[in-house]
Structures are given as C-alpha cells and as structure tokens.
Design brief:
The protein is α+β, with helices and mostly antiparallel strands. It contains 25 helices and 22 strands. It folds into 4 domains: 127 residues, Jelly Rolls (Sandwich), CATH 2.60.120; 119 residues, Roll (CBS-domain), CATH 3.10.580; 181 residues, Beta Polymerase, domain 2 (2-Layer Sandwich); 127 residues, Nucleotidyltransferases  domain 2 (Four Helix Bundle (Hemerythrin (Met), subunit A), Up-down Bundle), CATH 1.20.120.330. β9, α8 and β10 form a beta-alpha-beta unit.
Length: 666
C-alpha cells in the first residue's frame, strides 16, 4: 500500500500521466524500498487498464502475463472462480503467484472488479527481473503471509526494523547506538546486548571438577578446597549423576552430624538439570529463575560433561538481569520487602528490550519473576499463619501459567485443598491465607481480578474433589457463556504447596476434554468469538477507546485468538504443556499439526508479542502505565503489512479449527 505522499521526483521523458504512475508506484510498499530509478523504470513499462464493475479482470485457469496494482476501486479474488478468497483495494497487488510459479503461468483465482476499477499492469518479465535483482521486492512477494512474517522476524532477530529500507535501518541503528552510549554516560543501568548473544559454552572457564558418588565427604571437601570450587559434579561411569555444593555439605552433612566417610550419594542433588553448550545464556537464566538453582552443568555436543556455569558467571556477563530481582525476592522477610524487590521487573522489561532480546524470551523472564514473587508471598503468608492444617496447592491461571505475562496483568489464582479438608476445622486458616496472598499481590501491582478469579473467592478455594466436579461440569455439560469465562482455567500451573494436586487435576481435565467432541466444538465456538481485526481490503477494524481513540487491542484481537486456537488443539490431543510455544512443540511432536502450521503459528505469536511488547516498553519508558491498545498509525507501513499478515494467518487457522473440531459449523 502507498506509504503516504512523497515529494515527486521528476523523471526525464515521462509524460504527465506516466509521472503519476511513477509517483504512485514509488510510494507503494515494497517499491518504496528500492532505488527510485529502478521503480521509475518499472513504472514506465506499466499499462493502464480500466475494469467496469462486475467484469472479470483475470479468469481462473487462464494464462497471466502481468502483475496488477489497484490504483483505485476494488476487486475480489475467488479461488477456482467460486470460493471467495480476498477483497483488495487501492495499493494492493494481485496475480503474482502465477508469475512466480513459472511454466504456463496459469492462474488459480478469478479476479472480478466489484467497483469501477483503475489498474496499473506491470509486464511479467519486468516483474521477474525486479524479483531477482531487488531483495525488497523478493521478500515482499513471498507467496504466503507466513513467509513474509518469517522474514520480518529474521530482521528483528538481527536488530533491524522490519519496515525500513537498508539505508534507513543503518541510520536507525546508529541512532540507537548513540542513545545507548548517552544513557551509559549518564549512569543508566542498561543491559549489554552482547551478553544475550553468548552461548553457555562461552562461559565455561575450566575443565569440570568431578568425583564418583561413593566418594567420602571428607575427601570430596578436600578436592573442593584444593581446586577452589564451591560445587562438585558427581560422575559415575562417565555419566553425570548428581551435583553437590558447599551449602549441601554444610546443611545436609555437617548440620545433620553425618560421618566424614558418608558417600556423596547421601547428600547430592541427583539428576540435575543440564543444558547444552550451544544453548543461549538466556536459557540458563530462565531455568535458574524458574527452578531456583544457581549452577547448571553444561554438556558438549557429544553429551560429555563440558563444565559448570553459575549464576555469578552470568551476572558477571550481564549488567542487569532478572536474577537480581529473583535473589532480592528470595531474601525478602516481609511482604513490603518482597513487593519492593519485584518492582524492578518493569524497568527490566525496558532494559531487556533495548538490549535486543526477543519479546517471547522477555515475557518468560518477566513471568519467572512474577512466579517467584507469588511463591514468596505464599511462603510469607504461611510463615505468618503457621503450617497449613492439610496439604494444599497454590495455582495460577492465564498468562502467568503460560509464561507470557507482559507489563500489565491482574491476578488469577486459586487454592486446591486436600480432600482431607474440613470447612469447620480448616476453613478460617485458608481464608486468611488467601486474603494475605491476594492483598500482597495487589500491593505488588497484580490488581484484584474484576472477575473474582482469586483464592479469596470460595468457588476457587476448594478441595480437589470440588475442582474435579467443576471441570467435569464444564466439559460434560458445556454452556457457551460459562465456557467463555472458564477457558482461563485450562491454562493452569502450580507455584507452591503440594503440586501433585495440580497435576492430578490437570490429568483429569485433559482426559475428559480429549474424549468429548461436544465440549471441543463449544471451545471452538468460544475461540471464534474473537474476530480478527481485518475488514475488507485488509483494512484494520479498530475499536473505540474514550481516552485513546480508535486503536487495535493487540491482546484481545490478536494474541488471545491465537492462544485460543492452540489451546483447543492441545486439549483435543491431551497435551499437558501450558505455554503456547510449548503446546505447539508438543503438537508437532505428536503429529497433531504439520510442521508448517506449527511454524506459522509460532511466527505469528512472536510477531504479535513483539508489537505488543514494544508498545508497552515505550509506555513504561515514559513512566506511563502499560496497556494493549496500539495505534496502527504509530507503526511503519511495512510493519502494518506484517501485522495484517499475522491476522490473516490467525483467520486461516480459525477456519481450520472450525472444520476440524466443529464440522465447519462456527
């Protein structure tokens, strides 16, 4: 589409009519990203065609020798001449797939004018030469929206704005570099981008220090002292079987009065989490935050033990990380201290984004910090009230469970109580526990849920048997309105307490859901209630906000429809994973979705997350509260095109979801 009026560059020997064609083409994506002389030369070869309303511009199955550009008016594409495919308006191209396929250049769509329409027609041979010579043309005219999305994400991965021509990208990078240098000179605590490109193997500084599991404690301590290490890796028959830290020796051996000849196997942490040497440093960071450990063994490509990386190794590399927040939260002795420690998460999001870290990874880190804060508040509430009278689990729902929490979120949580729970005997304890947790979360910025999805609500604080009945009711007797509010509960994760209660409930829900086609059909209906914000001519359908005017709600109109699609697929196949990307990986591994479909949805999720996060980062950096309402006019023309592609991918998969699980009824 045209990027807006630009000063006309007069072309020699061009008539007035030809100059108009040149100006329009040179202002239209992607021709605005190639040298002006090349765009002008192409425009000089274009023919002008007028199509009356109702006339066929291109017939299905006929030979095509032109790339068409709509100058004014509108056309409809019908696949095979019958099934409606798309409606295109000013600035849109059509008929290029037949040119790219080569051979006889037979078209698959019939194109019909639905208004009196003026078309610019570029000869096919000229288009194909441009396609070969101009990368901007080649990238844009990829044959599917998903391919264009993939290219946009590859640019983001290199830190290049996806909507800018090469020269402008270089200027923007220089401006960003200068801005970062200025912040550092002013004392800004900005994360160094170079750290995020490192692999774990880059941080391994020495050969691994190991000992067999039957090594006596005294001998192990002597090895650690001699080698000046605080952690010893336990290896038997060439395989890593455990890990022992000096803290383990103090708390598990000395404090317990174990004999010096006690073998390491008695105090080691067995089967520790490991990561490959080629894994990004950020993978270790997220794993450490999620699982609250401080050392990770690193394996070489052949599976051999390469060494050990500690949280301090990463902290020495990265100037600002979530580990600082995590450690401060873990040390907090009061609710106020925990809230204060977690307050750094907002500025961390800004720093990580400026450092060029992918949005999906930033959301994982943000979620890990949030999860740590939730856990700490649970533990502080327990400490204040005393040990729980019966086992329980604290669980969360929605974005935190999926690990895609952004800079704005309310609280969604509940308590699963042991079936030994007795209301008269135990009720007061768990009511007070829920209240203390919820109040602490509200103080930390996780505002009370307006829908009441909190453990303070009796409905979401009940024994396991009650939760099982609730899920059984949703699945066996689904009601559309009830399910609309219940979908969030199918994204659940346990954070504290007896987590086996959460896993038991999850297994129950998955088993029932996968076997109930009526329930799945209703879940599809619910997933399709969110309309993709694309209208005719691929124009955005905006929603009115009294404060911000007409905007896109990138969460409700983009992110959530995709999450809903993936959730239905996961429930239908009994996938226990909760995160959207993790569910897609599991669906691919199970053969439930094609690798192409999985990659398309992953790319769409990544792009929407990038747009959403960048919008929120800009707000947070200015000290404003973050929201999800994006004004398309703040995006570059090509960014808007990529967003349209993302919405088109979602619409395609919504239609496929309906055909697969609801017989196309919805």
């Amino acid at each position: 589409m045209p990027t807006g009026p630009k000063p006309s560059t007069k072309t020699d020997n061009a008539s007035t009519e030809q100059q108009e064609v040149i100006d329009f083409l040179a202002a239209t994506v992607p021709f605005d990203g190639i040298p002006h002389d090349a765009a002008a030369a192409a425009a000089m070869t274009m023919a002008v065609r007028y199509a009356r309303r109702g006339s066929v511009v291109v017939g299905a199955g006929t030979r095509n020798d032109h790339l068409y550009l709509v100058r004014s008016g509108a056309v409809e594409l019908h696949e095979g001449g019958t099934d409606f495919h798309a409606r295109l308006g000013e600035g849109c191209f059509f008929a290029y797939p037949s040119l790219l396929r080569g051979g006889e250049r037979r078209t698959r769509n019939e194109v019909r004018a639905i208004e009196d329409t003026l078309l610019y027609c570029l000869p096919g041979d000229v288009f194909l030469r441009l396609y070969e010579d101009q990368p901007a043309i080649r990238r844009f005219f990829a044959t599917a929206e998903a391919d264009r999305l993939r290219h946009a994400l590859s640019l983001m991965g290199r830190g290049e704005p996806a909507g800018c021509p090469p020269g402008q990208r270089q200027e923007q990078r220089q401006e960003q570099d200068q801005g970062q240098e200025h912040e550092q000179e002013q004392g800004g605590d900005l994360t160094e981008a170079r750290g995020f490109g490192l692999r774990l193997g880059d941080l391994v500084g020495r050969a691994p220090v190991t000992a067999p599991s039957q090594t006596p404690l005294r001998q192990a301590a002597q090895v650690m002292a001699r080698e000046k290490v605080s952690t010893l890796m336990v290896v038997d028959d060439g395989r890593l079987t455990g890990i022992v830290s000096d803290k383990d020796i103090r708390s598990r051996a000395v404090a317990e009065g174990l004999a010096y000849d006690t073998p390491l196997s008695a105090i080691m942490t067995p089967e520790p989490v490991t990561l490959a040497a080629g894994a990004p440093v950020m993978d270790a960071l997220v794993a450490m935050m999620e699982r609250n450990f401080h050392h990770v063994p690193v394996l070489a490509a052949d599976g051999a033990l390469a060494g050990l990386v500690s949280s301090n190794d990463i902290l020495d590399t990265l100037t600002t990380t979530g580990l600082h927040c995590m450690k401060a939260i873990a040390r907090a002795e009061t609710v106020a201290a925990a809230v204060s420690a977690g307050a750094g998460a907002a500025s961390l999001i800004v720093d990580l984004s400026r450092a060029g870290l992918a949005a999906t990874r930033i959301l994982e880190i943000r979620s890990a910090i949030s999860a740590a804060l939730h856990r700490r508040l649970v533990h502080l509430a327990e400490a204040a009230l005393g040990p729980p009278p019966v086992p329980y689990a604290f669980q969360v729902f929605g974005s935190l469970a999926r690990r895609d929490q952004t800079g704005v979120s309310d609280q969604d949580n509940g308590l699963i109580l042991s079936d030994d729970y007795d209301e008269d005997t135990h009720g007061d304890y768990f009511r007070r526990l829920a209240t203390q947790i919820s109040d602490g979360l509200n103080a930390a910025g996780f505002v009370y849920c307006q829908g009441g999805i909190m453990a303070t609500n009796d409905r979401w604080r009940q024994p396991l048997a009650g939760w099982r009945r609730q899920f059984s009711d949703w699945i066996t007797a689904p009601e559309p309105k009830a399910l609309m509010h219940a979908t969030i509960f199918f994204d659940m994760d346990g954070l504290a307490g007896d987590l086996s209660l959460v896993e038991t409930l999850r297994a129950h829900a998955l088993d029932m859901a996968a076997r109930n086609r009526i329930f799945l059909a209703h879940m599809v209906e619910n997933a399709l209630t969110a309309q993709v914000p694309l209208g005719f001519f691929r124009r955005f359908v905006l929603t009115r906000d009294k404060e911000q005017g007409d905007t896109l709600d990138i969460k409700k109109q983009g992110v959530m429809p995709l999450i809903d699609i993936v959730r239905v697929h996961a429930l239908a196949h009994g996938i226990a994973a909760v995160g959207t990307e993790a569910r897609l990986d599991a669906l691919a591994a199970a053969g439930a979705l094609s690798p192409q479909d999985v990659q398309d949805m992953k790319d769409t999720f990544t792009l929407l997350s990038e747009v959403r996060l960048q919008h929120q980062v800009a707000q947070l950096a200015e000290g404003r509260p973050a929201d999800n309402r994006v004004d398309p006019d703040t995006l570059s023309p090509l960014e808007r095109e990529h967003l349209r592609d993302a919405f088109s991918v979602i619409r395609t998969h919504q239609e496929a979801l309906s055909r697969t699980y609801a017989g196309g009824l919805f």
